[in-house]
Amino acid sequence: MTVQIRKAMVLAAGRGTRMRPLTDTMPKPLVPFDGRPLIDHVLDRLEEAGIEEAVVNVHHLADQLEAHLAARMASGRGPRIVISDERTLLLETGGGIKKALPLLGDDPILTFNSDSVWVEGLGRNLPGLMAAYDPERMDALLMIADAVRTIGYVGRGDFTMAPDGLLTRRAPSTTAPYMFAGVQIVKSGLFKAGPDGAFSTNILWDEMLERNRLYGWRMGGTWMHLGAPDDVQDAEAFLTTL
Prior knowledge:
The protein is of the alpha/beta class. It has helices at 38-48, 62-74, 92-99, 101-104, 125-132, 202-210, 229-239; strands at 7-11, 32-33, 36-37, 53-58, 80-85, 108-113, 116-119, 140-146, 150-151, 159-161, 167-169, 178-187, 214-218, 222-225. It has one domain (7-239): Alpha-Beta Complex (Spore Coat Polysaccharide Biosynthesis Protein SpsA, Chain A).
């Protein structure tokens, strides 16, 4: 069953504490990478994939981010951008999406961490992810990266994955071969049942895991997890080798 994904949620409200001192004076989505702010890499990917509207949540140094997004919109670049304002209370990933539900609607959406960038492989990852999404089997489909082909912090990895894509969390005191690459397709209506206030999407993922409804799609290319200034430097150095 093919589902047309038209809206995305760009998670851009975090304080970016690991990216200090850069985030002392700018929101993390405006940190430059390869000559452009991080959020422009995200929005360009969404535009290329045919996403019509991106809801962007803001909190830390929100005025700067809103001004940048307004200038982008004025230049005629897509997608259309709508702001979800979290200035008064930072709601984490799940709470931020729940707050934005009136803007997102009831259809499946694509969520995108504002620090998730990658070098494409043989194909384009976002169209591949969208083509693989099957709402009959999946409550969420996560874009998954090989830990060994990731630039930036990977820790012990996040998930193991069955041949059909069904995900299992890494067991304690073990390692796992795959990382969540910061992008997913998820049924937006599931967030209505989340708690009030701030909460992590991990709460909903745990429920999906219990129901065997959380799946992964293995991306091509190299994912770059840009959590700290050293990660940005390492990723930019990697780009010079291509």
